[in-house]
Please model this.
Amino acid sequence: GTALYWASPLTSVSSQTMHYLLILRLMRLILLLTNLERFRTLGKCIATIVPASSGVLGVLFASAALWSSFGVQAFGGLVYDGNPALEEADDYVDAHFQILNFNDFSMGFFPLFAMIVSGGPYPELVGALDHVSQFDGAGVLFYFSWYVVGVLVMVNVFSAFVIDAFLSQYDVDDSQRKDELSSLDQSFAGDGFRIVAYKASTRDDVYRSMFADDLREFADQLKPTTSSK
Model:
């Protein structure tokens, strides 16, 4: 339909409008993927993990807020057009990184987030803070500390949590689905249909599935040991 509408000589459609129509057409692919059982299980696991990871994301946000507040106090108001100290930071100015500054609290999240995405500090940002600061090596110390705490520790903790939660929740959902299919009475289903039941997992269920082995081991340690007479 979209191709015929575009090829019709009686209509005039801009290329930008055609891009939007093609995007809407690609949405049909998602409807087709929802018919796949594995895809539905994958989406269910992701929908369960996102609220369960709020605690880890909260710690990451609190760490970024702490570094942003410190950056505002140490480097706030030092990055601006016409600052003679930035004349020596040619790479910083040529790359148009002036928006990555600590002039206010909200702007301070941008250079920290850019460092998380890139996996390491930008030399232009480190050099710019060294030039505008009164203390030598202030930019190196600031960004290196955030690299250790924010990137190496917090991001890896979040990544490990998401991977572990997804694998455990996927296994639990897959085993529950098999058990429910085998236990449900399919005699009431019509030809070509089957009865399916799904249990909605909560955040506690995700934690319970992740640490099932640890909880089982801890429960075994609490059991009183009987010595043979």
Q: What stands out?
A: The CA atoms of residues 60 and 154 lie 6 Å apart. The chain is about 65% helix and 0% strand. The mean pLDDT is 75. The first helix runs from residue 2 to 7.
